[in-house]
Design brief:
Layout (H helix, E strand, L loop, with lengths): L5 H11 L3 H23 L5 H6 L5 H16 L1 H24 L4 H23 L5 H23 L4
Helix pairs in contact: 1-7, 2-4, 2-5, 2-6, 2-7, 4-5, 5-7
Length: 158
């Protein structure tokens, strides 16, 4: 994400999605999509050899590290906040692993499909087709965009 500041990226995403209903859908769907993707990484099997040596290891930890690295290039304060959110999501996944009646991967796949439908409905409301270039970048930035709004509201720099 080099070359643009966080504000410029967020302004581009704002300009691409001006409709209020679509913004509400983003606030509803983005955290679910983010959690579901983390859960799908959680569901990737770990080899028996790795599990024997590193019983705490899970592929969601790799996803968290990669996401934090990417977001840190955009904004360190946002990366810290997103790390806190991903740690909370990881804790929820741990609870689901032990107490949910269905496998984590299945639960997260259902959540991803449902939130993805909401994401697509937002585009339909705006009368726009999904663009891999513009909307793909906005999808990657969406968690940081939402957190930047929270930071701004409480007076924290990002």
């Amino acid at each position: 994400m080099p070359g643009k500041s966080a504000d410029r990226w967020f302004a581009a995403c704002d300009a691409a999605h001006p409709h209020a209903a679509n913004r509400w859908l983003r606030w509803s769907c983005v955290p679910v999509i983010f959690f579901a993707l983390l859960g799908l990484a959680w569901a990737i099997p770990v080899s028996a050899a790795w599990e024997a040596r590193l019983p705490w290891f899970n592929w969601s930890l790799v996803a968290i590290a990669l996401a934090c690295g990417g977001y840190a290039c955009l904004s360190r304060p946002l990366a810290v906040g997103l790390l806190a959110g991903m740690a909370a999501g990881h804790a929820v996944l741990l609870q689901l692993e032990f107490y949910a009646p269905w496998p984590v991967g299945q639960i997260c796949l259902v959540l991803l499909v449902a939130a993805g439908i909401g994401w697509c409905v937002g585009h339909r409301i705006e009368g726009r087709k999904w663009s891999w270039r513009a909307d793909g970048i906005c999808l990657l930035l969406a968690p940081a965009w939402l957190l930047s709004r929270v930071y701004r509201r409480v007076g924290l720099p990002y």
